[in-house]
Amino acid sequence: MKTLLQQINSPTDLKKLSMQELEQLTTEIRTQMLTRLSVTGGHVGSNLGMIETTTALHYVFNSPVDKFVFDVSHQCYTHKLLTGRKEAYTDPKQYDKVTGFTNPLESEHDLFAVGHTSTAISLACGLAKARNLQKANYQIIAVTGDGALSGGLAFEGLNNAATLHGPLMIVINDNQMSIAENHGGIYQNLQLLRNTQGKAECNLFKAMGFDYYFVQDGHNLNELIDVFSKVKQISHPVIVHVCTTKGKGYLFAEEEKEKWHYMAPFHQENGLTLAKPNTYETYENLTRDYLIAKMKKDKSIVAITAGTPKIFGFDKKLRDEFPEQFVDVGIAEGHAVSFVSGIAKNGGKPVFGVSSSFLQRAYDQLSHDLALNKSPAVILVYFSGISSGNQTHMGIFDIPLTMNIPNLTCLAPSCKEEYLDMLEWALEQTDGPVIIRVPGIQTLSRKVELLTDYSNQVKYETVISGNQVAILALGNFYQLGKDVQAYLNKAYNIEASLINPRYITGYDKVTLEKLKENHQLVVTLENGQIDGGFGEKIARYYGTSQMKVLNLGAEKAFIDNLSVQTQYQRFHLTVPQIAENILKVLQGLD
Amino acid sequence: MKTLLQQINSPTDLKKLSMQELEQLTTEIRTQMLTRLSVTGGHVGSNLGMIETTTALHYVFNSPVDKFVFDVSHQCYTHKLLTGRKEAYTDPKQYDKVTGFTNPLESEHDLFAVGHTSTAISLACGLAKARNLQKANYQIIAVTGDGALSGGLAFEGLNNAATLHGPLMIVINDNQMSIAENHGGIYQNLQLLRNTQGKAECNLFKAMGFDYYFVQDGHNLNELIDVFSKVKQISHPVIVHVCTTKGKGYLFAEEEKEKWHYMAPFHQENGLTLAKPNTYETYENLTRDYLIAKMKKDKSIVAITAGTPKIFGFDKKLRDEFPEQFVDVGIAEGHAVSFVSGIAKNGGKPVFGVSSSFLQRAYDQLSHDLALNKSPAVILVYFSGISSGNQTHMGIFDIPLTMNIPNLTCLAPSCKEEYLDMLEWALEQTDGPVIIRVPGIQTLSRKVELLTDYSNQVKYETVISGNQVAILALGNFYQLGKDVQAYLNKAYNIEASLINPRYITGYDKVTLEKLKENHQLVVTLENGQIDGGFGEKIARYYGTSQMKVLNLGAEKAFIDNLSVQTQYQRFHLTVPQIAENILKVLQGLD
Lengths: 590, 590
Known about the structure:
Two copies of one chain form a homodimer.
Chain A: H1 11-14, H2 19-40, H3 44-49, H4 51-60, E1 67-70, H5 77-82, H6 87-90, H7 120-133, E2 140-145, H8 152-161, E3 168-174, H9 186-195, H10 204-207, E4 211-215, H11 221-232, E5 237-243, H12 251-255, H13 283-297, E6 301-305, H14 316-321, E7 326-328, H15 333-345, E8 349-355, H16 356-359, H17 363-372, E9 378-382, H18 398-403, E10 409-411, H19 416-428, E11 434-437, E12 461-464, E13 468-473, H20 478-492, E14 497-500, H21 509-518, E15 519-529, H22 534-541, E16 548-554, H23 564-570, H24 575-586
Helix pairs in contact in A: 4-11, 7-8, 15-17, 20-24
């Protein structure tokens, strides 16, 4: 028997279905989605929670004439299923045909590639404005989660949206969760609105100038279609507040919402992960254990997250254990940075843990509120470096982002011993802000000369003192540098120097000058974008001298879902490629 | 007779005064402030409007035990007058002793150096959190304007503030103005609250979880002191909504609020400016006239500002003339960038005019919403380059900020002809986002080879084809490069090449390779920070070749109120310094 889903090739096909068939369709979607998720992993909770709402939206409106923007797009699976991409969910061989994010290269129904929170309303405002200039009249629909409302951009968007003309619908998917639990004053108001079926007079959205509609049960197609149909008649900006259940229809996900926000492949029957448990030590746990011990001794230590508490291991139990010394400010990286600046200025010792990709949401705060004011706060940057994930989560931009801001000390530890040494120093010093680039997921241990104090003159570690070629292998590219050094020795009988720079910011002029004595080439290796990064500073340093400099790292490009190994190949970062490149320069063939 | 102001050396002295004396003091402050403003210029409107509120705050609270954070600090003059710095307002010889911004180097009563809007609440949250960890109980006071509420960070701050424990007071100075008029949905709610004396049930601040107080007349010391005294007894976060008049007490400023937001020196009697009118053409007017003509012909052109409409000449009259084609989104640069991306994706032709310093508030949106999505929007960056202003308004960071983001085409026109040529192309192309670095205030005209199409391969303009030394003079450093070229010729008989790179992003490999034939040194001149900028890319390009490269530009540092000429000296950017530097490298003495 042909399933209903098999008949849906575009949203137009939805409109032929009866209410009963629509119900059946959502059941089929949930089944297929869960089956795929159990194999590929993905954002389980938000996607299961938005099946009925998305189906109702596509039933009432006419994509791609009416235009949808899904915030962060962690709820876009149903949208993809209904807009010509169902095979990527029903046919295991085609699972890799679509990503977990909206992507204009996949479909005309996807307007933007997105992956950072709180931007959908602003993007939708732009679509609406352009439509108005064209005197057209179709609907623009922004779908955003309650968790995204902690991000300031959502409010900038709401503030502007309320003044626009013509149809604009903002769907607030209120599942009472961010990645972890929500934090912030506005969530009291959402609670009040839920408690009063949207009837409370004190209404955040009305206060911002919106017409407001409430959907009590975001899994009830009748109610959803009824409200969306009403809104379809309205030609001004409207908020539709839809209450959903994160993980809807899958018991394990409904019960442990934070755990099931994102899951690796799992047994559908028992909800157990198929991912093998880490047999190695991680920087997440290393940091967690260090901070726990430190926080117990020193009540002025405070760990801050912007919505991703597990980044340094703070699960719910641990958060409850340190209610005063752990703060989740919501998905609000800008605020987090200004907040830690304030804490540090008033005698606290804040440490903010954040993903490389998300730190860029706080550039202005890093520059002014933190660096200009020399507040002694610590920022730990996780998931930095070349990675195989989505183009919106790349970890190659944090070095250019931070190292070019005055007054920031940026450190790149090469191993766990150095990491802990830097972290301890950073938390105890009072001179200014320190950014530490966490070397990776699995810890690396090695015998290393520790500086203990990183406030003095920049001092690189010369691990191997050779000649002709010097390899400056930054942070978690230490091992790559070491491998290249060994390869050069073995294959070409070149006894290169190996240097661990330790510092991303500043120069160790003593070491750099000394290299001039018996080296012709300095090679910089950094696990990040070359443009604006560490290596270019070295090229500039030696620019007026005889020393040749070769900068290696990631190219300036957005790269979507490509294996790390393929990227290494493309960037000429494999050991033989690097060695060959070095040889060419030495031979003057370049 | 000794004035009251002469007796005030710290806030403690205020507390000895009677209400009548306090009234008299505010009159004295207003007189002194106006006199100084008429001589030095400054932020007239907001400072005149906050005299009574600031006096009442310092009367009721105990700075520096209680801690004040003034948002953007364009209202801090009274605070400075009352905290030991009155001579900088009463004694003309000492006018230059304090800046127009809060500054911890000046006084223990200033907690932060700030100058970008919407950060005060977040900074205050940090101070409060650190206080709580210390189990102390003093008051933290954030003072922020209604205009600043359009910035998302203010909402991130409010959202977090509502959840904090202990005393925290956020004073909303509602003068019904941003720099220009306010824009956005929230301003309807502020209007409703003003109309109902703060009694309306639908209250933005209550919706965000705050206890809320209203001050009808922010120039009535009795009312202010009464409310602040009540709040002093409360040990949880509170909003105090104070209605003030921008420009209060100076008729001209009250009547023309936008004009008097910031004023150059003026005749106090008639309000006329003392600044000589520009006798030259400005890029502001050039852009305005270009856009007016363009908008009349093409209804898809839309100009966007984030609260600074006059940056490209859009005064009130002109804004009213193009109500659909000009959008002020409020002080919300992040939203502005996502908004223009949406407009461009839907067939509009948006152009966003923004200050170099403020563009950094939109880094994440530049990267993801705009560049990753290749939306063909145009951004015009004003006030870029070395300047003599406040450290929070520096124009040297925009090149490192933008050029290291993939998919952005960044252009640096050398003169007005090239600027208009690039602007016309940028608005009509559909390939992706283009950033144009507006060359300065006064236009420069020269005979220049125009490319018309900047989408093809990067092509530098070789203005003078010489040998030995090549000067790559970027954008508005074209004239400096030309002067250096002439100086080298005259003083040292060196016939250097002079090149206008036109493009900040990308390499003209043909030209760069050709230089290798008969040049030993390439000198890069950029009016911006060297670190992360244009020159370092050139150093990297030639890193593995024999070519020497000398990068010149601004040092990586925050610099406060220093003349441009002094900075040029410090950065070795005067013509003789540059020439000397070049000679040294050529002689191998470096």
